[in-house]
Design goal:
Helix content is 26%, strand content 38%. The chain is an alpha/beta fold. The protein is elongated. The relative contact order is 0.18.
């Protein structure tokens, strides 16, 4: 009889531990939203052509650790139209990359694919115009795929892996499920989902709202 009571007590304790874990998880796994407007990342070569030799970007706002929005903008010119002041994000990259939304592709007249940041092979180019010069890039224009930044500690805690695809659920009157969301894991990242302004408007999301990772993609 005593053994049965001990087993029941052990089971109760295990259940309580799991309940607490799930409650903490429900709070912990809410990921802040970062709405991403069109922007550009520049290589050092292109930065110096557009703004002058040894020019350095002027940081105005921190984003993810080590990443920031700069004061500087450039004109981006496509075959049909242009954007007069597209924000440059730092730091400098090895290759120039222009990130726009799907509706922006129609304005510029470019057939930009949905890609992960950095994957610019076989993508269209545009003309960039700065205060000191012009650069025509032959590739680099993409519609950035939605993704979530996670710290290494956070990913380990919940068993997530870099490059993994997950599904997320938004909140609010336009509650939506988003599939094919890529996880990006790094020691210096803080949890945040990045979606473009069109997706945010569709889901009724704004900066500072939260989403939840609901399940792994199968």
């Amino acid at each position: 009889m005593a053994q049965v009571e001990m087993d029941i007590d052990k089971i109760v304790q295990q259940v309580l531990v799991e309940v607490r874990r799930q409650l903490n998880k429900n709070t912990d796994e809410l990921i802040p939203v970062g709405v991403s407007n069109k922007h550009i990342h520049l290589s050092l070569h292109d930065l110096e052509i557009l703004f002058g030799k040894e020019y350095e970007l002027t940081k105005i706002k921190d984003l993810q650790p080590g990443q920031y929005a700069s004061k500087e903008t450039v004109e981006v010119i496509g075959t049909k139209g242009s954007f007069n002041k597209m924000r440059i994000l730092g730091p400098i990259r090895t290759e120039t990359q222009v990130e726009i939304s799907i509706s922006d592709t129609f304005i510029l007249g470019v057939d930009a694919p949905i890609r992960e940041s950095g994957n610019i092979k076989d993508t269209p180019g545009v003309l960039l115009r700065g205060p000191k010069g012009e650069v025509r890039i032959d590739k680099g224009v993409i519609v950035a795929s939605r993704h979530i930044h996670l710290s290494t500690d956070y990913a380990k805690k919940y068993g997530y892996k870099d490059g993994e695809l997950v599904t997320v659920t938004t909140n609010g009157i336009r509650k939506t499920t988003l599939h094919n969301v890529t996880l990006r894991v790094d020691d210096n990242f803080r949890p945040e989902i990045h979606i473009d302004i069109e997706e945010a408007n569709t889901c009724g999301l704004k900066n500072g709202d939260t989403i939840k990772i609901t399940r792994e993609e199968e």
